[in-house]
């Protein structure tokens, strides 16, 4: 396990931009030249509800650094369960971890994923680099496509493994933009494609959180038989609103997160 939270996030970022080159362009587009105001609101990680790699196994890496469990979320249609974690130092990013409920999936998907996870050495899951270690297996393109037909989420993890699925710009901390609409317009003018599922902006000030996201980059992946270009990771943008005590809302909105998951869907 890492002992330095900033090193962990720096390593997660380097791994993420390697398969999401547009992230650096977004950074340059939104950041102010005077100060580093592109602050990470949260990252998201994906896994399966298998004992070896379940949500809690990923969360342990953050809990060891002082993170605390703060909320849970259910996504019935996508067969997902999720929790989010926060650090007492509110300047550190929040962490959103989800897991696919294999008992709700087909026997084919369950058996395929179980066989992949069996290939991960037990000690790898607690190693410093596990959260940005990628795949510990190889899948064929046909297996990926068959998983994709049932669960985009399962197919994505089969292809990309363990890494940040997205980072998130905190719109509240940007100096050059006052609203999520302004951020979205700048992104579109620069040629970025946004996730339109559930509308360009998911959420409202009434639920204290507005979110938007790019569509995932298309990036090459090495399958066991061929190299193919598929959706990799994306960049999210979050604007938070103050709740009754005047502090910004720090949770997530399941109805909005449900649509954000679709940023990695095929274009």
TrEMBL record:
Query: Iron among the record's keywords?
Result: yes
Question: Which cofactors must be present for this protein to function?
Answer: Fe(2+)
Q: Which Gene3D superfamilies would you find in this protein's record?
A: 3.10.180.50
Family annotation (Pfam families): HGLS
Q: Which InterPro entries match?
A: HGLS
Known EC number: 1.13.11.93
List the keywords (alphabetical): Dioxygenase, Iron, Oxidoreductase
- The lineage's top-level taxon is Bacteria
User: What PANTHER family does the database record attribute to this sequence?
Assistant: 2-OXOADIPATE DIOXYGENASE_DECARBOXYLASE, CHLOROPLASTIC, DUF1338 DOMAIN-CONTAINING PROTEIN
So what family is this one in? Belongs to the 2-oxoadipate dioxygenase/decarboxylase family.
Q: What is this protein called?
A: 2-oxoadipate dioxygenase/decarboxylase
Species of origin? Rheinheimera maricola
What phylogenetic lineage does the species belong to? Bacteria, Pseudomonadati, Pseudomonadota, Gammaproteobacteria, Chromatiales
